[in-house]
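Recap for those who missed Tuesday's class. We walked through two folding examples back to back. For each one, the amino acid string is listed first and its predicted structure tokens come directly after. Nothing is annotated here on purpose, so try labeling regions yourself before you check the end of the notes.
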Amino acid sequence: MAAGSNVDWTLLPSDVIVHVFSFLNSHDLNHASRVCNTWNEAFDHPTLWQTFEFWFFLPSHVSYLEGAKKYGKYMKKVFIGVNQMLTHNRQNACALLEILSRIDRRRITYLKIAFTGENPLFYSGQEFLDGLSILFSKVADNVEAPIATLQYVDLSGLSVPIDDRVIDALSENHTGLKYLDIQNKVIISKTTSDCILRLVERCRDLRDLRLYYCSISNEVLEAFTEHDRTDVEHISIVCRREVKFGYELETEAWEDLTTRIPSLRVTLGFDHTCPYQLISAIMKPVIPVRTLKLETFAICHDEVNLAATLYNKTLEKLVLQTRNSLELEAALLKVARTCTLLRSLLVYCVVRRETINEIFRLHPDMEERGTYILKSEVEPEPWVVGVEEGD
């Protein structure tokens, strides 16, 4: 076509327009739909609405609700981001949950919710729990049953204590669930181990479960060993202050599970509220720990040494938020030498340059992939994975 010639973009085939639109975010997509009638018709194509991100940061974002009413029947993968500080954002997000729950023959299989901003003082988030319970529950009498049930639910970004009522509604009505993350960093976990046991017993295809230590039990581990279910692939357990009020996961329960599922991957984490004297007791040798997170902000070189001994055949990733010492650096080198599968090392304290060089010598692939945080000088946070000073 000669330079300066007029281009009639409306002549583009509709499938080409839809493909181009699929690369746009919701804001740009909305603007593009106003160019002409042809582009506006492409805007309504079901393919463009299978994955959608709802962001509630401003009062004007209430307009998303009309989009949900019109196109929610096409949505399969839904993300909801909320600035929780402002009342209108929380109200709009809860209204969205109600709209989604009333969609005839909905197709949603993926749901993720994330809060941003500071948690308002004395805010309980009860309306979110109510909205999730309705969304997870059986549809109303005047609503046709879903075409698909939820398979992936990530509530780790929801700054609200998730209770048994919400999880029970999910497990009762979405038995095809494959992934659940309820490690949502609230001060208190209200999800009991009995509720998680019901979840595991109902959801026979559950493959990835991420929760707090107080929400798991020996009975939950035993339920995963049943032969008439899909093998669980990954269990993530974070230990906090509640471990001192619970009971210990027995070695026998772990042995039965790992014998039944040798390929099981376990992530084991400890935060700064976990009683220090309980960490080594929880780190049982029978647990196939692939990722270990010691985010204690306290001296933990003994635990790093223990990890090098117990998990030398399984450990792939080690995360440390601690204080530096010569003992810690010696423990890090022990991990680097003994854990042959180690692929990622994230250390949030400074270590000596010679220690870093030796780790890279032992694991050059880690340096090549950039899957590390290793600093020899203090820098402003956040520290970036794989970026060294001078890069």
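Example two. Treat it independently of the first, because the proteins are unrelated.
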Amino acid sequence: MDDIAVETVENVTETVENITEAVKNGTGKIPATPEGMAIAYSSLVIMALLPIFFGSFRSIKHHADQKENCERTGEKPERMTRKDAAMFPIIASCALFGIYIVFKIFSKEYINLLLTGYFFMLGVLALTHLISERVGRLLPASVPFIQYHLRLTQDATEDLIDFKFSTHDLVSLALSAAVGVWYLVQKHWIANNIFGLAFSVNGVEMLHLNSVLTGVILLGGLFIYDIFWVFGTDVMVTVARSFEAPIKLVFPQDLLEKGLAANNFAMLGLGDIVIPGIFIALLLRFDMSLKRGSKVYFYMTFAAYVAGLLTTIFIMHVYKHAQPALLYLVPACLGTPLLLALVRGDIKTMFQYEDHPEEAEATEAKKTE
């Protein structure tokens, strides 16, 4: 019993010393407790899963609408080609290093002020798109539903602006703007997460991977990109900590001690949600195309994503170092559906699947001619 008492006193003394040191250093951050870390990382996992799940199902309707619109107008659908997928990690690397250099040269306060205004506008639009349909259903009948059509043409032939909206959309815009003002004024972590979740859902819903092969190229390239910029340099970590914009989900590890004013955050970048998410959404659409009444590829890959994310958190906790999440997420999200397709005999069908096969047929016809 004496040994236990001595050990308890030592633990309490160490905790008090850590808190005192934090106050002296001006950080004001209470060291994370096991309970606080468990709550923070559990919340991050849940917040990461919600955009992928709901965004994937929303992508089915979005791509159906896009296909219908292309058939009506004759326009080509916006999609990522294999060349785009191969170039994406290079372009992302240049952008990341450019931001890093800018933070080194210029004052961080002024840069973040500019970024705050930019992401305020993007966040309001993303949140409006996300909630407008739901808000329209919840509004009372006393709020009239009036449609508007804003159109600006050039020479009566070319549409410069062609935008349709309703009074319900305006209500959604007002609510989203209120969240935006909250974010501008306080930079509160809840407001940050609302915008971050809106960006993630919209990204999974609307970013278009047309084929599995394109997804393999994209995830493979970003697998190398993430490892290099996290383990090879301090660029990724520096930018993530300096960049005050809703490009990451955060959750306080000291929530139990400081409540909503907590400031010792665990974080997860939106890229670690959206990049695997658009591939998982593609697999859901592939499941639907098979017309077998099951979504086995979607659910198995979704479960693999959960396992990869938990592995990332575990490794980060063990080694006390930032981890490139795609190091664990990419093998899980690629290996699971490919192995499953190989076992089920669907591997050829999977690689032949395209959201817009008629475009590929038209291209082949032109080559033949």
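Answers for example two:
The longest strand covers residues 158-166.
DSSP finds 14 helices and four strands in the chain.
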